[in-house]
Amino acid sequence: MAVLLEALDLSTLKRGRPITFDKIDVTLSYDEVGAVVVDLPAIDRNWELISLDGDGNLTPFGLVLGWDGVYEVPLLIEDWGFKRSLTDGRIVESLTLTGADFLSLLANRIAYRTPGSAWTAQTAGSTTYGPNPAETVIKTIVAANLVTAGDTARRVPLLTVATDQERGGSATYKVVHPAPDATTGTETATISQSLMDMVRAVDEQAPMGVRITLGDGELVFDCFEPRDLSESAVFSATLGNLPEAGLTVAAPSGNAILVQSKVTGATFTQTNGSGASSAWRRVEQFVDQSSTDTAADVTTAANQAIAAGAGKVNIAVTVTDLPRLRFGDDADDVQGYRVGDIVTLDIRDGVTYSDIVSKVQLVADATGDTYTETVTPTIGTTTDDAADQTINSKLSARLRQLERALRGSV
After folding, report:
1. What's the predicted TM-score (pTM) here?
2. Which of 109, 280, 286, 307 lies 20 to 30 Å from 50, alpha-carbon distance?
């Protein structure tokens, strides 16, 4: 089976005609918004996808990517570009579409303290969800802000939330609308975060992934627990599906956090991270909390600075599919893996590393002499700008164990 790209009518969520493409580049992410770039030949049927509003902006539209019959994901296209070039003596015109998967809906909404009311009716204070199973907390907040929101402009048409199965460990989430400081007018706490930030915060307490799939005329938001495939989904040079693997270590950008606040008796405080006691590794950073007299807020700010400034350990691998281990759904005698699954890497003899598949890049390229399809998963994290610094620092801590194991195997 081949890669299939279909149009998606956002008003009905019905599939349209298949679309001729030059190249598809889609990156799916665990508890983050995915990204999509699609290059199309500028033929008349593809121009029909482009519709502009009164301000000259692209009217968003949908696509459905079917990957070799083993995986399907709906996509939201929000931007476009046109290019004309002279190639091998002939004029070539192309369209480039960019967008995301539908988790962008979560990133584009903040969590209201009182989601049944409009923003102008919100009040200072906080609302705590839980303690409940992680799935319950996430689905309750998403449904209240995207499906039944009091402000109808916040509701997403044809979006449903799958039945809560109460999966995951216990979790809580506090939605805060802070009051201004009486003297400075500045906020004394972090304002409400996006729904995507909320998902990551809950995942930190009890691992829980989220996805939006296409149902019968509806978008379905659902949660899933990461599957532990560490025994059955193994990548190694011996098996032939791990041709490259590398580990890089970076020094901290801040490990001695110097904080100034209005906390009585503790105006000047200091929080140390790893290496701060060494004259050669100490990196000082100043964190201004002079607007708050709440000790808990100061502690949170210092811990966030420690996490952001911690020395990063990154792993980069190149893996390939095998006939019996591939990206996508399970099949007879075939182990499928997806974003959010836990897999194992055999880095070198006696050194293995198990972690979550945090990203998968899917590329279908018809621009060259030979049509190619590539699947590039990311295991753990490989970037310094992870969406959540706390998650990034925890992944780095696990990679430190791998670093020590590599040294010990020499």
Report:
1. 0.81
2. 109
User: 222 phi and psi, to 5 degrees?
Assistant: -145, 165
Count of Cβ atoms closer than 10 Å to residue 87 Cβ:
7
The 3-state DSSP class for residue 33 equals: coil
| 214 alpha carbon, distance to own chain's centre | 19
Model confidence pLDDT, tens digit, residues 326-379:
999 888 888 999 999 999 988 887 788 888 898 999 999 998 889 999 888 888
Q: What are the E-state strand segments in 115-158?
A: 125-133
Q: Which of 36, 106, 9, 3 is nearest to 328 (CA)?
A: 3
Q: How confident is the model at residue 31 (pLDDT cuts 50, 70, 90)?
A: very high
Cα separation, 159 vs 139, in Å, equals 12
Query: Residue 107: is it exposed, middle or buried by C-beta count within 10 angstroms (0-12/13-18/19+)?
Result: middle
Rounded to whole angstroms, how far apart are CA atoms 75 and 4? 13
DSSP 221-282: EEEEPPPB-TTTSEEETTTTS--EEEEEE---S--EEEEEE--TT-SEEEEE-TTTTSTTT-
- Domain assignments of the chain as residue spans, ordered by start: 4-101, 106-224, 234-249+313-409, 256-309
Does the N-terminal peptide bond of residue 131 adopt cis geometry, omega within 30 degrees of 0? Answer: yes
